Amino acid sequence: MAKRTFSNLETFLIFLLVMMTAITVALLSLLFTTSGTIENHKDSGDHFFSTTPNPPATQGSTATQSSTATQRSTATQSSTATQTSPVTSTPEPPLFQNFSGYHIGVGRADCTGQVADINLMGYSKSGQNAQGILTRLYSRAFIMAEPDGSNRTVFVSIDIGMVSQRLRLEVLNRLQSKYGSLYRRDNVILSGTHTHSGPAGYFQYTVFVVASEGFSNRTFQHMVTGILKSIDIAHTNMKPGKIFINKGNVDGVQINRSPYSYLQNPQSERARYSSNTDKEMVVLKMVDLNGDDLGLISWFAIHPVSMNNSNHLVNSDNVGYASYLLEQEKNKGYLPGQGPFVAAFASSNLGDVSPNILGPHCINTGESCDNANSTCPIGGSNMCIAMGPGRDMFDSTQIIGRAMYQRAKELYASASQEVTGPLASAHQWVDMTNVTVWLNSTHTAKTCKPALGYSFAAGTIDGVGGLNFTQGKTEGDPFWDTIRNQILGKPSEEIKECHKPKPILLHTGELSKPHPWHPDIVDVQIITLGSLAITAIPGEFTTMSGRRLREAVQAEFASHGMQNMTVVISGLCNVYTHYITTYEEYQAQRYEAASTIYGPHTLSAYIQLFRNLAKAIATDTVANLSRGPEPPFFQQLIVPLISNIVDRAPTGRTFGDVLQPAKPEYRVGEVVEVIFVGANPKNSAQNQTHQTFLTVEKYEATSTSWQTVCNDACWETRFYWHKGLLGLSNATMEWHIPDTAQPGIYRIRYFGHNRKQDILKPAVILSFEGTSPTFEVVTT
Description:
alpha+beta; Immunoglobulin-like; 2 domains; 43 strands; about 30% strand; globular; disordered N terminus; metal ion binding; N-acylsphingosine amidohydrolase activity
């Protein structure tokens, strides 16, 4: 390749970028601080809305306020591991043992965290910060134990982008403090649904901290609390029951977003499958001994990206909507997030699977851009976007989510194959930067230190990058190489050689300031329930990667006498390591391959490691497995770039006052909108006086009371926060009146918290409420 010379403009841009980066690094150094004061969060339990014996107001509004002081505690400093708290083991409830089946416990708890002043995690799009809420996020826990209680396993599906290593380590530490050795690193799986509309800020490795624009302890603690609470509820609710398994295809909801990568796999291998995505859904049905419903876990390969990167409302996307529909159906009479039945739609090998089934088109011309580089003739890759089936992203989310719900409902109803047999689990920590992979009996290869390729910056057809990088890049660019070298230093020849043909954009495995940029130590884990094996994957497997791992693990079990095992790929578990493609897909260097951070032999390494775990379970030699090197737990992290400021109400107004009331009358299908004097919603994640930002309430004349018919977890409601200057803000509440709404008198209430700080005094958080004038819903 001929040497490239730089124009005066490019030289000036390089100089400008270097100077700006130097200033940014200096600012980050100032922000890099010991965790000093970390806010504690007390969970106030489930919020059940009681009736209030107040007659409907005919005009005006009300706003009430009370005070709650901000809670704080001092953090201890550690650079390598969590600080183990004294073990206060919770007494084990007596278990009835004389039955066939398992002890089953299910639990669900809110883990939403901040819904403002924080980035949304998934698209890595600058400026895509949270500005309200569409649906709440939940942690859903399932505990299975043998009749005598001797062995048990825990599977937790969480409505977040992915499970971070820091999150898992903290949860395990607190479980040990409460339950002793009952719930451990080997028998607890934490899996993210991979919604791209949840808050960021709960990571410890620098790449993710930068993408999150800092570490948010407020959100981190709320997530930890929610996960633990869901496990606590499941533990308390354990009862004898049975588990059934069923499988079936879901059609019309997926496309492969990197078909040109998929075609790199051997034709003989591709010929064994009818599709370039995995269409099979696996469903576990859980019932008590009377046959009454307890819960469901579904695994299906689909990216929760129906809500695109223009969205600013926290929500659980298409898989969350599927959970919402099934739980609402099974928990009749309960508000969303309440009721005994728990339904988790968990992630699988979704790496190259998109729900935007209309495929990629140039948004400026309308022509297809389904090509090897996902580019458009005019505008390049930034114009190539895949669209969902609906009229907008909300509609697409419902269409895809409803299809998954309907199929899961059918499979649940017809499930008849009972899961029986012992429970087992195996886990290791592995240094993924130094795994020797046996390619055959005579040749080996090794994994690499982490690195991201050029096509990582291109994004995907579900959410493009912002600098007009293209997918499929197998050569670097002198312009960006020079900028990287000036700011971060040059990647070593060793890492460049190891990752070929990936052109390295960021050599993250050689960067360690202020902390390592990517994890070296990774969890590998399998839990088995009789003939079902759940593989906990620390990232996003592509379709063919998942097929190869399932086949290899199944063969390993069979070779040691465990025949006909069903192997499930459970994605986004325990620690996040981006993507895992096949060796052949890696050669094409589209987004997924450029994001396979441990190099071309990553999949082979995982297959080798998971086969080893399967062998240990099948031969009852789990006790002989080495723990592996324990991962670090960093206490010094970059604080969020958005600081806390005092909230202010306009002159003559107070928080919760109505600025724009609803109209007097509405019909089904119309949208009620009320605007209140608002305050920063992140204060409410810190002090949980209320478990919702809004309620829609209907007046019942017979009891002269208000009944809550909807809250902010309902799909029909939307809470928008509009941030103004100098602490001023508005809150807009919307209710999209559903077909099921009954005629009558209604009102909307707003629940919030404002930050107040007097001179020389600590900040306090004040709770307030606002109530709209009444309005009427009438029949057509």
